[in-house]
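User: Can you predict the 3D structure of Arylesterase? Sequence below.
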Amino acid sequence: MKNIIFFGDSLTAGHGLPAVASFPALLQLRLDEQQLDYKAYNYGVSGETSAGGRQRLPTVLTRHPVEVFVLALGANDGIRGIAVRETTHNLQFIIDAVRRQYPEAQIVLAGLEFPFDLGPLGGHRLAHYATEFKALFRTLADKNSLPFIPFLLQGVMGRRELNLPDGVHPNAAGQKILAENVWQVLKPLL
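Assistant: Sure. Here are the predicted structure tokens for Arylesterase:
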């Protein structure tokens, strides 16, 4: 059995849903259906920032050998307005640490963006932040030659029927779309 580590925040954890409804659990079902010898591990923690992920990474990396590592952190950094350079530094640290410990592992990076144009709400500073935030993921993927999921929440964000009442976290139907978004990039690696 080869291991796929899904390392993220509440979007990965499946916040507000049974564990079996999270996109990593849904991908495990797909792996089983296609008789692929992979075990999906969900290391999503609600509220996690890139700095928090950086701190808990060593513990996760000692639990299982890693063949594929899906990095899906940054949403909480963006919500909190953490400096883009800090988020970039933390994500690069995570990428480097996985590569050091598991040099043969495939690392997949999931991109994020803000749900709407922040310009009219908060002036050009917020719009500039949103643009920089979105770009940091593509820049990291290119710099590190990583398979890249351009926007984890593609097709889900902003659609009321695919989110919990908080309007932020995908519901079970939304998690199915996240699973598909990830699968499109993950499948060719397996």
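Helices lie at 10-13, 23-33, 50-61, 75-80, 84-101, 119-144, 172-186. The radius of gyration is 16 Å.
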